[in-house]
Amino acid sequence: IGVASREQYVVFEGDGSILWSYPINESSSGVSGSTVFDLYGDGFPEVIHCDQDSIRIFDALSGILLWSKEHSTHTAMEFPVIADIDKDGHAELLTVSSPYGDKSYNGLFAYGLDEGGIPWVEARRVWNQHTYHITNVNDDGSLPRVESPNWVDYNNFRCQLAGLIGIYENEKPAKRVKSWSLSAMPNPFSTRTTIVFSSNSEQVSSLEELKVYDCTGRKVRGFDLHSDGIALRSFVWDGTDDDGRLLPTGVYIVSGHSRGGRVDAKIIIVR
Fold first, then answer.
1. pTM
2. Which of 88, 97, 103, 128 is such that its CA lies 20 to 30 A from the CA of 161?
3. Pfam families, from UniProt (predicted)?
4. Averaging pLDDT over each range in 163-172, 197-206, 239-248, which range is the top one?
5. Tell me: the pLDDT tens digits for 199-219?
Protein backbone atom coordinates (compact mmCIF):
# COMPACT_ATOMS: atom_id res chain seq x y z
CA ILE A 1 0.00 0.00 0.00
CA GLY A 2 1.61 3.27 -1.12
CA VAL A 3 0.71 6.53 0.65
CA ALA A 4 2.11 10.00 -0.02
CA SER A 5 2.21 12.73 2.63
CA ARG A 6 3.78 16.18 2.50
CA GLU A 7 7.25 14.88 3.39
CA GLN A 8 7.33 11.11 2.81
CA TYR A 9 6.22 8.49 0.34
CA VAL A 10 5.58 5.38 2.43
CA VAL A 11 4.87 1.80 1.36
CA PHE A 12 3.15 -0.40 3.93
CA GLU A 13 2.94 -4.16 4.23
CA GLY A 14 -0.50 -5.76 4.46
CA ASP A 15 -0.19 -5.93 8.25
CA GLY A 16 0.42 -2.17 8.51
CA SER A 17 4.19 -2.32 9.07
CA ILE A 18 6.38 -0.03 6.95
CA LEU A 19 8.19 -1.73 4.07
CA TRP A 20 10.10 1.39 2.98
CA SER A 21 9.81 5.17 2.78
CA TYR A 22 11.41 7.97 0.78
CA PRO A 23 11.56 11.74 1.50
CA ILE A 24 9.52 13.92 -0.87
CA ASN A 25 8.47 17.58 -1.02
CA GLU A 26 4.75 18.24 -1.32
CA SER A 27 4.40 21.44 0.70
CA SER A 28 2.27 23.12 -1.99
CA SER A 29 -0.84 20.97 -1.54
CA GLY A 30 0.03 17.97 0.59
CA VAL A 31 -1.68 15.81 -2.03
CA SER A 32 0.03 13.74 -4.72
CA GLY A 33 -0.53 10.42 -6.42
CA SER A 34 1.38 7.40 -7.63
CA THR A 35 1.04 4.72 -10.27
CA VAL A 36 2.24 1.11 -10.23
CA PHE A 37 3.49 -0.68 -13.34
CA ASP A 38 5.85 -3.55 -14.14
CA LEU A 39 8.04 -1.43 -16.43
CA TYR A 40 10.58 -4.17 -17.17
CA GLY A 41 8.14 -7.09 -17.46
CA ASP A 42 9.98 -9.19 -14.89
CA GLY A 43 7.01 -9.82 -12.62
CA PHE A 44 8.07 -7.19 -10.06
CA PRO A 45 6.37 -3.77 -10.15
CA GLU A 46 7.80 -0.28 -10.03
CA VAL A 47 6.23 2.73 -8.30
CA ILE A 48 6.02 6.00 -10.25
CA HIS A 49 5.42 9.08 -8.08
CA CYS A 50 5.41 12.84 -8.70
CA ASP A 51 5.74 15.54 -6.06
CA GLN A 52 6.09 19.27 -6.70
CA ASP A 53 9.81 19.01 -7.52
CA SER A 54 10.52 15.61 -9.07
CA ILE A 55 9.24 12.59 -10.97
CA ARG A 56 10.64 9.38 -9.49
CA ILE A 57 10.59 5.67 -10.28
CA PHE A 58 11.20 3.27 -7.39
CA ASP A 59 11.67 -0.46 -7.13
CA ALA A 60 8.44 -1.35 -5.33
CA LEU A 61 9.94 -4.09 -3.16
CA SER A 62 13.09 -2.35 -1.92
CA GLY A 63 12.37 1.37 -2.38
CA ILE A 64 15.61 1.85 -4.33
CA LEU A 65 15.39 4.93 -6.56
CA LEU A 66 15.77 3.78 -10.17
CA TRP A 67 15.25 7.06 -12.03
CA SER A 68 14.29 10.67 -11.35
CA LYS A 69 13.58 13.81 -13.35
CA GLU A 70 13.21 17.40 -12.19
CA HIS A 71 9.90 19.12 -12.89
CA SER A 72 7.57 21.59 -11.20
CA THR A 73 3.90 21.51 -10.38
CA HIS A 74 1.54 23.12 -7.91
CA THR A 75 0.05 19.67 -7.37
CA ALA A 76 -3.61 19.06 -6.64
CA MET A 77 -4.95 15.65 -7.66
CA GLU A 78 -2.84 14.78 -10.70
CA PHE A 79 -0.69 11.68 -10.86
CA PRO A 80 1.54 9.97 -13.47
CA VAL A 81 -0.04 7.92 -16.25
CA ILE A 82 1.41 4.92 -18.10
CA ALA A 83 0.27 4.10 -21.66
CA ASP A 84 1.70 3.32 -25.09
CA ILE A 85 0.84 6.70 -26.60
CA ASP A 86 2.74 6.36 -29.90
CA LYS A 87 2.03 2.68 -30.68
CA ASP A 88 5.73 1.76 -30.67
CA GLY A 89 5.23 -1.36 -28.55
CA HIS A 90 6.63 0.26 -25.39
CA ALA A 91 5.10 2.10 -22.46
CA GLU A 92 5.47 5.84 -22.05
CA LEU A 93 5.19 7.88 -18.86
CA LEU A 94 3.00 11.00 -18.98
CA THR A 95 3.11 13.78 -16.40
CA VAL A 96 1.86 17.36 -16.17
CA SER A 97 3.84 20.35 -14.95
CA SER A 98 3.12 23.96 -14.08
CA PRO A 99 5.38 26.85 -13.03
CA TYR A 100 5.97 26.88 -9.30
CA GLY A 101 8.59 28.57 -7.16
CA ASP A 102 11.77 29.15 -9.14
CA LYS A 103 10.94 26.46 -11.75
CA SER A 104 9.11 27.14 -14.98
CA TYR A 105 8.19 23.71 -16.37
CA ASN A 106 4.76 23.92 -17.97
CA GLY A 107 2.58 21.51 -19.95
CA LEU A 108 2.24 17.81 -20.64
CA PHE A 109 5.46 15.77 -20.75
CA ALA A 110 5.96 12.27 -22.15
CA TYR A 111 9.01 10.14 -21.30
CA GLY A 112 9.93 7.00 -23.17
CA LEU A 113 12.70 4.50 -23.87
CA ASP A 114 15.68 6.82 -23.48
CA GLU A 115 14.40 8.16 -20.17
CA GLY A 116 13.85 4.84 -18.43
CA GLY A 117 17.29 3.30 -18.97
CA ILE A 118 16.33 -0.28 -19.74
CA PRO A 119 13.53 0.00 -22.35
CA TRP A 120 10.06 -0.45 -20.94
CA VAL A 121 7.65 -3.19 -21.93
CA GLU A 122 4.48 -2.96 -23.99
CA ALA A 123 1.41 -1.38 -22.40
CA ARG A 124 -2.20 -0.64 -23.26
CA ARG A 125 -2.85 2.51 -25.29
CA VAL A 126 -5.64 3.74 -23.05
CA TRP A 127 -5.94 5.31 -19.58
CA ASN A 128 -9.38 6.85 -19.43
CA GLN A 129 -10.00 8.34 -15.99
CA HIS A 130 -8.63 9.32 -12.60
CA THR A 131 -9.80 6.06 -11.01
CA TYR A 132 -8.49 3.97 -13.91
CA HIS A 133 -8.41 0.20 -13.66
CA ILE A 134 -7.99 -2.18 -16.56
CA THR A 135 -11.54 -3.59 -16.44
CA ASN A 136 -13.38 -0.24 -16.72
CA VAL A 137 -12.48 0.43 -20.38
CA ASN A 138 -11.89 -1.69 -23.48
CA ASP A 139 -8.78 -1.41 -25.65
CA ASP A 140 -10.71 0.55 -28.30
CA GLY A 141 -11.86 3.13 -25.75
CA SER A 142 -15.40 1.82 -25.44
CA LEU A 143 -16.86 1.07 -22.03
CA PRO A 144 -18.04 -2.42 -21.06
CA ARG A 145 -21.79 -2.73 -20.54
CA VAL A 146 -21.09 -4.85 -17.46
CA GLU A 147 -17.71 -4.35 -15.84
CA SER A 148 -16.00 -7.38 -14.33
CA PRO A 149 -14.91 -6.83 -10.70
CA ASN A 150 -11.28 -5.72 -10.87
CA TRP A 151 -10.65 -6.43 -7.20
CA VAL A 152 -11.60 -10.08 -7.76
CA ASP A 153 -9.94 -10.81 -11.11
CA TYR A 154 -6.84 -8.58 -10.94
CA ASN A 155 -6.76 -6.41 -7.79
CA ASN A 156 -4.56 -3.83 -9.58
CA PHE A 157 -6.30 -0.48 -9.11
CA ARG A 158 -4.47 2.33 -10.98
CA CYS A 159 -2.03 -0.22 -12.37
CA GLN A 160 -1.56 -0.42 -16.13
CA LEU A 161 -1.58 -3.75 -17.94
CA ALA A 162 1.87 -4.77 -19.15
CA GLY A 163 2.66 -6.52 -22.40
CA LEU A 164 5.05 -9.40 -22.99
CA ILE A 165 7.92 -7.81 -24.92
CA GLY A 166 10.91 -5.80 -23.73
CA ILE A 167 14.34 -5.23 -25.27
CA TYR A 168 17.79 -4.43 -23.96
CA GLU A 169 20.52 -2.41 -25.69
CA ASN A 170 18.52 -2.34 -28.96
CA GLU A 171 18.71 -6.12 -29.33
CA LYS A 172 15.91 -7.88 -31.18
CA PRO A 173 13.79 -9.21 -28.31
CA ALA A 174 13.20 -12.89 -27.78
CA LYS A 175 9.73 -13.84 -26.67
CA ARG A 176 9.28 -14.01 -22.92
CA VAL A 177 8.11 -17.51 -21.98
CA LYS A 178 5.53 -17.63 -19.19
CA SER A 179 6.22 -21.27 -18.31
CA TRP A 180 9.81 -20.41 -17.37
CA SER A 181 10.94 -18.71 -14.20
CA LEU A 182 14.20 -17.28 -12.92
CA SER A 183 14.80 -16.60 -9.24
CA ALA A 184 17.66 -15.68 -6.93
CA MET A 185 18.31 -16.50 -3.30
CA PRO A 186 19.11 -14.42 -1.35
CA ASN A 187 17.65 -11.36 -3.01
CA PRO A 188 18.73 -8.65 -2.19
CA PHE A 189 22.31 -9.88 -1.69
CA SER A 190 25.70 -8.38 -0.89
CA THR A 191 28.36 -10.99 -1.68
CA ARG A 192 26.77 -13.80 -3.69
CA THR A 193 23.43 -15.20 -4.75
CA THR A 194 22.23 -18.45 -6.30
CA ILE A 195 20.30 -18.02 -9.56
CA VAL A 196 17.84 -20.82 -10.30
CA PHE A 197 16.05 -21.54 -13.58
CA SER A 198 12.77 -23.48 -13.61
CA SER A 199 10.73 -24.67 -16.57
CA ASN A 200 7.47 -26.54 -17.07
CA SER A 201 8.38 -27.16 -20.70
CA GLU A 202 9.51 -30.62 -21.81
CA GLN A 203 11.41 -29.08 -24.75
CA VAL A 204 13.52 -26.67 -22.68
CA SER A 205 14.98 -27.78 -19.36
CA SER A 206 18.02 -25.48 -19.13
CA LEU A 207 19.38 -22.09 -20.20
CA GLU A 208 22.03 -21.55 -22.84
CA GLU A 209 22.96 -17.94 -22.11
CA LEU A 210 22.45 -15.45 -19.32
CA LYS A 211 22.99 -11.67 -19.34
CA VAL A 212 22.94 -9.10 -16.54
CA TYR A 213 21.93 -5.48 -17.22
CA ASP A 214 22.11 -2.41 -15.01
CA CYS A 215 19.39 0.24 -14.87
CA THR A 216 20.87 2.17 -17.79
CA GLY A 217 20.30 -0.84 -20.06
CA ARG A 218 24.04 -1.59 -20.23
CA LYS A 219 25.08 -5.24 -20.19
CA VAL A 220 27.48 -5.66 -17.29
CA ARG A 221 27.88 -9.43 -17.20
CA GLY A 222 27.36 -12.25 -19.67
CA PHE A 223 27.49 -16.01 -19.20
CA ASP A 224 27.75 -18.57 -21.98
CA LEU A 225 26.47 -21.41 -19.86
CA HIS A 226 27.91 -24.11 -22.11
CA SER A 227 31.47 -22.82 -22.50
CA ASP A 228 31.68 -21.56 -18.91
CA GLY A 229 30.88 -25.03 -17.64
CA ILE A 230 28.26 -23.68 -15.25
CA ALA A 231 25.33 -25.80 -14.10
CA LEU A 232 22.53 -24.95 -16.48
CA ARG A 233 19.71 -24.79 -13.93
CA SER A 234 21.44 -23.33 -10.89
CA PHE A 235 24.65 -21.41 -10.31
CA VAL A 236 26.20 -18.84 -7.99
CA TRP A 237 26.90 -15.24 -9.04
CA ASP A 238 29.25 -13.10 -6.96
CA GLY A 239 27.91 -9.73 -8.13
CA THR A 240 30.86 -8.89 -10.38
CA ASP A 241 30.95 -7.59 -13.96
CA ASP A 242 32.75 -9.10 -16.95
CA ASP A 243 36.04 -7.60 -15.73
CA GLY A 244 35.72 -9.09 -12.26
CA ARG A 245 34.86 -5.78 -10.59
CA LEU A 246 32.24 -5.62 -7.84
CA LEU A 247 29.06 -4.00 -9.09
CA PRO A 248 27.64 -1.18 -6.93
CA THR A 249 24.38 -1.14 -5.00
CA GLY A 250 21.42 -1.11 -7.35
CA VAL A 251 18.77 -3.04 -9.22
CA TYR A 252 19.88 -5.37 -12.02
CA ILE A 253 17.89 -7.32 -14.60
CA VAL A 254 19.04 -10.89 -15.21
CA SER A 255 17.87 -12.25 -18.56
CA GLY A 256 18.16 -15.95 -19.40
CA HIS A 257 17.93 -17.19 -23.00
CA SER A 258 17.33 -20.60 -24.56
CA ARG A 259 16.00 -21.75 -27.96
CA GLY A 260 14.46 -18.45 -29.00
CA GLY A 261 12.83 -17.66 -25.68
CA ARG A 262 13.82 -15.77 -22.58
CA VAL A 263 12.98 -15.24 -18.93
CA ASP A 264 13.87 -12.23 -16.75
CA ALA A 265 14.36 -11.56 -13.06
CA LYS A 266 15.15 -8.50 -11.01
CA ILE A 267 18.09 -8.81 -8.60
CA ILE A 268 19.14 -6.21 -6.04
CA ILE A 269 22.72 -5.75 -4.84
CA VAL A 270 23.24 -4.02 -1.50
CA ARG A 271 26.85 -3.20 -0.58
1. 0.66
2. 97
3. FlgD_ig
4. 239-248
5. 665 555 567 778 888 876 678
